[in-house]
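1st attempt posting a full record on here, be nice pls
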Amino acid sequence: MSSPSRSGTQTASLLRSEAEHIVRRLQAAGHVAVFAGGSVRDALLGYAPTDYDVATSARPEDVEALFEHTVPIGRQFGIVLVPSGQHHFEVATFRKDDQYVDGRRPVAVEFTDIETDARRRDFTINAMFEDPVAGRILDFVGGRADLEAGIVRAVGNARDRFAEDHLRLLRAVRFSSRLGFPIERETLDAVVHAAATITKVSAERIGDELVRMLTEGRARQSFELLDQTGLLAHVLPEISELKGCEQSPEHHPEGDVFVHTMLCLGHLPAGCSETLAFGVLLHDVAKPLCAGTKPDGSRTFYGHTRDGAEMSTQILRRLRRSNATIERVAFLVDQHLRHCSAAEMRASTLKRFLRQEGIDELMELARIDALSSRGDLTHWNFCQSALAELSDEQMKPPPLIRGEDLRELGMEPGPLFKTVLRSVEDAQLEGRLQSRQDALDYVRREFLGEQQPPERS
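the predicted structure (as tokens):
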């Protein structure tokens, strides 16, 4: 693990200090108060926690009385949001959950003690507590031993834990992949047994968990484990269907579309954008739909970029992703092979292609796609060189003329305006027009049929 920067260390220290302020104040009032869950796990692994949750014996009304500004975000479950310094922290009362009927939330909770609270949590490595004032770890479920052994184990009976909240099935996969820990055998068996119940979880929660898998690092491991446990066929059947979709060896010596996609995911770095991640995952999603075979036996996938953009839109809508994400991913999927013809493009076409919003992500998708097949970066290198050589003004110069200029020439507003202005811009991008007067003369000659006077010698 790389060393954190000085600013990053200061930020992490400030975050911890602000969280500790809440713990100290609760303890000073006579309550038990500790850090809970992921922050304890990450700190023991040597990572700087990015957030802190506080667990306490204080009831919600006690918390609200102690702190001036609070937000009751889940008061019925004992959860109150408390500001401290520049951040807000969830403060939750120790609780025992009543019966789960929807595979998501208990119908009620009973406020209880710290040990009982630990035993209702998902995985042992997430069920430890830290008392930052006393400087000690509180572990009632063997979490520290599992952390040292490097395994993901459910707290108590694994099937019970997954029946309570089906999203824990995906969380087991994510923690296993992100941390590089295998899932303990009984817990893994319970994941496989309950895989079909993941469909009872809301699409938005599933989408959020998939985004974390794709962007936290080790995306390939996450999706291969989703496949091995049977979860992938339920959350993203379109990706499961890539298995067995053979490709021509001369273009894809690595194997079928599923193998290729998994190799692509292996190139996604931790911290990548959601849009790039989904673009990489879905760029070939329509290949099974578009697959064909030539007389010589070679495989074709005509139209898979266009159809893939449509399929990506449907999938991401199903997962309740934002419109901006959907639009960007559809663009990436639709355009992911266009750079292959860049060297043959007219100058105007090339400049329009390279100036598109999202071109950086498109080029990264193209690079990952190439590295996961033959490794040929010729087309990518051509585009990168062009991007380095062309300035923003060369790719998108100020227009030489506008609609009002066409009206002054006597043209009636209408669809032809767009054609004329695009033609003028083409000539400008190709260096054939340099000035406003050049552009006006071009319109008169090409669209109004006016003869230009001969140049004087």
